[in-house]
Amino acid sequence: MTRLLIQFAHPALEKSRVNRLILSMLKTLDFVTINDLYENYPDFDIDIDREQQLLLDHEYVILQHPFYWYSSPAIIKQWEDLVLEHGWAYGREGVALTGKKMMNAVTVGGRHEAYREGSFNRFTIRQFLAPFDQTANLCKMTYLPPFIISGTHRLTDEMIRHHVSRYQQFLEMLASGQFDINAVKNLENLNDLIPLNQPL
Amino acid sequence: MSRTVLIQAIIYLASGVLFVPLAKRLGLGSVLGYLLAGVAIGPAVLGLVGAEGQDIMHFAEFGVVIMLFLIGLELEPELLWKLRIPILGLGGLQVLLTALLIGGLGILAGLAWQPALALGMILSMSSTAIVLQTMNEKGLMQTSTGQSTFSVLLFQDIAVIPILALLPLLATFPVSTIAGDHGHDSLVGGLPGWLRMLVVLAAVLAVVFLGRVVMRPVFQIIARTGLREVFIATALLLVVGVALLMETVGLSPALGSFVAGVVLANSEYKHELESDIDPFKGLLLGLFFISVGASINFDLILSNPGLIAAIVGGMMLAKATILAILGKRFKLSTDQNLTFALALCQVGEFAFVLLSFALQNGILPAELVSLMTAAVAISMALTPLAFLLNEKVLLPRIGTKETPRKQADHIDEHHPVIIAGFGRFGNIVGRFLRANKIGTTVLDFDSDRVDVLRKIGLKVYYGDASRYDLLRSAGAEHAKLIIIALGSPEKSKALVETVQKHFPHLKILVRAYDRDDAYDFMESGVEHIYRETIDTSLRLGVDAMKLLGMRAYHSQRAARLFLKHDDKALTELAAVRHDRKQYFSTARRRIQELEQLIGSDEANRWLKEVDEGWDPDSLREEANRGMFIRPENGTTGPVNA
Fold first, then answer.
1. Which residues sit opposite B510 in a β-bridge?
2. Are B552 and A109 within 8 A, CB to CB?
3. What's A106's domain CATH number?
4. What is the SS3 assignment for B331?
5. Residue A35 DSSP SS3
6. Are B472 and B441 in contact (CB under 8 A)?
7. Residues in domain RCK N-terminal (chain B) (predicted)?
């Protein structure tokens, strides 16, 4: 199995229901490396060497975070600013990440239907994630569509468990190479590839 | 109570109240203040007290007994063990060699060997009170001089006991009548020698037994009553009882109370005993020094000014010489050694005790005691001058140079930062700034450290940082910041004043020892105040929270907010401090403040702030009530679309 690097970012995990469950699920998987950013760098002093080595050691980078203000929590930005150095990740000589895959896995409070043209939030989640898409592109990586767990404000504990196990199933398929990257990379999201077992 | 007793009390108290603050103001210390008070009310000046001064002196000698009890109480076995080499080596040799040298000089001056040796031992004592006070004020206690000085003084304190025991063996005169009470009361006087030894041994064992076994439950019961004055009475009863017991078997009461103190040093009531008995010691010793002052025979001095000068000069020179030789043997650098020798070359307050003891036991003749008492007092008064001579004349010439030696091609650039004090606090700041290529000039008062720092290429000025001229030569006019990291709060305050007065353009960053210090700096208008321990304590708190499984980022935020909150509380308390200062003692005020602080820690908004931001419960609630919500903190939408 290919190892997956999970860049986990939640500034107030003690208040989160979904991400807490996701984190404990991730800890049971032997093919993922969890890098808990807020826990490792509470003062935002990102260890650049360590982070770059982690990137070199993995084929897949998954940014796992809640969807705050149509984007990620602050530490992911700090991580990008410091770790994706010119001459290493991008630029004429920046080829360290060439061919790797990057994606976002987000938890969203609002309903899925609110994220489309003409609706409350006017754009799709994938559209909001365009800066990540282009960041991956600039670093010669392939950007994959997001895995989204939405409507979290209204999820019951049972529903959360179901979503988390779908996410687990997705990660297992990703790591064992069951997706045709070229076929899926233009989808709106990847969560729709995993069937819902029950009406939500 | 007869009127005369009251009038006597008024004379003594008033003289003390008048002269001691005066002497302190002049930098002479309280002991000299009491002596001056005695001189003033004595026959030489006002003649308010006469022959009864002797009786009062006997009463006041009880202060010496209490003092030795307290010294015993203070002796911590671990400290003694840690300092055993300097205490026994440096201290022991100092007392021994000084006693022999001065004794030898005494014989040359025509004394018999017994009084000469007694005088030698008496004059080997230095003034603990004056020296430790001065060293503390100058921030020298942590230097190698400070440590050596402390060791020597500690040995002298202990040496008083064997000296008190040895002195009677040197008696050559018939015991004078006023001193007769020592001999008469002894119950064992008529017994044969071996039996006397047994009785003495039994008495000492009784004191040990009393301290180890009996007193603990007694203090426990008394403490439970909650009546402080009864506790004080018990403590005094113990000391008086032991003193009486010792006198009865013919031993020195001071020795007995010293043993009792040592026995109780490990007791849990140690600190209570200390603080309860201390005022009695202070008052009685004050009385003792007043009576010493009153008993100085000025006719004798005025008729022999040359003799007195020779005695004072001779004995200080002899002491300083021995101290300097020993300092060199014990590897003190030249500077440290000079300070060490001059700091301890006066004769101290113990000498008054020993002199009056020697007079009563017929060891020294009255005129000699008078002469020596005056000489000792003068040598004590000269101590501040000796320090001054050392700082202004000797050290600048012989010792570490104040300003760093300039190399020929060295262009004197101006550093933007001056760091005053390169001890355990300043050195971290200094290293940090240097590592970031920020030019720093260091001012330090520890010549050993200065030498080392200069060797590794730092620009270091040596001396008292609060001096205007030193600051100027260190480049204060061109610097931007001054970082005050001195160990002594008094020195820091003095430096703040100097800087504010002469270099107002310098931004001051100051290290504060605790909240009280911080208040003082706030009052003098310093903006950047750094309490020594708060950051470290909070860092520890953060780690504690993390080890308990809390998230790192949450813990860190909590600590930062706590710090902000605490700083705010500090400012608020500083504003009301003056009203309180007048009503409460420091300790009482601290406890009150702590109570208030903890109260506000729990009640205040800051705790809520830690929890604010990111996924507030209110957002979830609103979503579940099916209402439209603003896209705040992300994650939103028309939830009931």
1. B484, B529
2. no
3. 3.40.50.360
4. coil
5. strand
6. no
7. 414-538
Domain count, chain A: 1
CB proximity A94 to B under 8 Å = no
In a domain, A111, yes or no: yes
Query: Residue A47, SS3?
Result: coil
> Which chain B residues contact residue A47 at CB under 8 A?
none
Task: Output the DSSP codes for B578-640.
Answer: HHHHHHS-HHHHHHHHHHHHHHHHHHSTHHHHHH-SSS-HHHHHHHHTT-----TTS----TT
Residue A6 to residue A129: CA distance in whole angstroms: 17
Closest-CA distance, A67 to chain B, in angstroms, reads 6
* A61 in reach of chain B (CB within 8 A): no
Q: Are strands A60-66 and A101-107 parallel, antiparallel or unpaired?
A: parallel
- Per CB-CB distance under 8 Å, the chain A contacts of B636 are 109-110, 114, 120-121
Q: Give the count of beta carbons closer than 10 Å to the beta carbon of residue B377.
A: 26
Task: Name the residue among A67, A69, A111 with its Cβ closest to that of B639.
Answer: A111
DSSP 8-state class, residue A73: -
What three-state secondary structure class fits B107? helix
User: Are B512 and B531 in contact, with CB atoms under 8 Å apart?
Assistant: yes
Give the contacts of B452 (CB within 8 A, at least 6 positions apart): none
**In which residue are the tokens 């004090």 written?**
B421
Residues B446, B142 contacting (CB under 8 angstroms)? yes
User: With a threshold of 0.90, does the pTM exceed it?
Assistant: no
Minimum Cα–Cα distance from A112: chain B residue: B637
- Compute the distance between CA of residue B201 and CA of residue B331 in angstroms, rounded to an integer: 41
Instruction: Tell me how far apart the alpha carbons of residues B601 and B593 are, in angstroms, rounded to a whole number.
Output: 12
Asked whether the ipTM of the predicted complex exceeds the cut of 0.90, the reply is no
Distance of CA B298 to the CA centre of its chain: 33
pLDDT in tens, B385-426: 788 788 778 877 777 776 665 443 343 567 899 999 998 899
Q: Is residue A57 part of a domain?
A: yes
pLDDT digits (tens, 9 = 90+) for B43-84: 777 877 766 666 777 777 777 788 778 878 877 777 777 778
Tokens of B437: 């290529």
Asked if residue A200 belongs to a domain, the reply is no
Interface with B, mutate which of A8, A13, A14, A15 (most B CBs under 10 A): A15
Residue range of the domain that includes A91: 4-193
Rounded Cα distance, B335 and B398, in Å: 8
- Interchain pair A42, B624: CB under 8 A: no
List strand residue ranges (DSSP E) for B380-470, in order.
Answer: 417-420, 440-444, 459-462
CA distance linking residue B338 with residue B74, whole number of Å = 29
Chain B residues within an 8 Å CB radius of A156: none
A-B Cβ pairs (cutoff 8 Å, strict): 98
Integer CA distances (angstroms), B11 to B19, B39, B48, B155, B584, in order: 12, 12, 8, 36, 30
From CA B103, how far away is CA B322, in angstroms rounded? 13
Record: contact A38-B552, CB cut-off 8 A: yes
- Note the Cα B157 to chain centre separation in Å: 14
What value does the CA radius of gyration of chain B take, rounded to a whole number of Å? 31
Q: Which long-range contacts (CB under 8 A, 24 or more apart) does A23-29 make?
A: A25/A164, A25/A165, A25/A167, A25/A168, A26/A64, A29/A168, A29/A171, A29/A172
With CB atoms and an 8 Å threshold, state whether A110 touches B635.
yes
Chain-chain contact of B635 with A11 (C-beta, under 8 angstroms): no
**Per-residue model confidence as pLDDT tens digits over B243-302:** 888 878 777 777 788 888 888 887 777 777 887 888 888 788 788 788 878 877 777 778
In the block, which residue shows the tokens 């003799």? B307
The answer to whether residue A121 neighbours chain B at the CB level (below 8 Å) is yes
**Is there a domain that residue A99 lies in?**
yes
Do A67 and B636 count as a contact with CB atoms less than 8 A apart?
no
